[in-house]
């Protein structure tokens, strides 16, 4: 994982073809195993921040798209939807260019006549949007609290400044009274 991302890009070209060919295997056990391995590997990449002008996330998620579109196995398609759902829900703030592949998987799942894929996709999408809305509301609440603290600090400062002016004015009045007496 510590290799330069350009090196990973070259390695990934070879690995992605392997994942696709094995993921489309007739042997269901092997295909499920390779999908789980692919999920684990992609999760590692999604946890890392994507650099600007790079589409590594999209590239790493493409095998899921290809297998989803070409597979005849409903078990593999369901597993892909579940894998992508788990990845998106756990790393929703880190996904950048990977959204393209995520939407392609979800679009393929919704177009499928198997209702479970469609339900999983809708459930994941609702959960993502709710999580994003909740995060936005929390962010707004924090900003509101910070603004309120700033306003209170400003009010305290103004009050202290005003009280100092009054105190200095009173002191000079006191001095004037002392001078008169």
From TrEMBL:
Pfam families, sorted: Sec7-like_HDS
Entry coiled-coil feature ranges: 130-179
One GO cellular component term noted in the UniProt record for this chain: trans-Golgi network
Transmembrane segment boundaries: 6-34
Domain of life: Eukaryota
InterPro entries found in the cross-reference section: Mon2/Sec7/BIG1-like_HDS
Name of the protein in question: Mon2/Sec7/BIG1-like HDS domain-containing protein
Domain Mon2/Sec7/BIG1-like HDS: 44-114
Species: Zingiber officinale (Ginger)
Keyword terms of this UniProt record: Coiled coil, Membrane, Transmembrane, Transmembrane helix
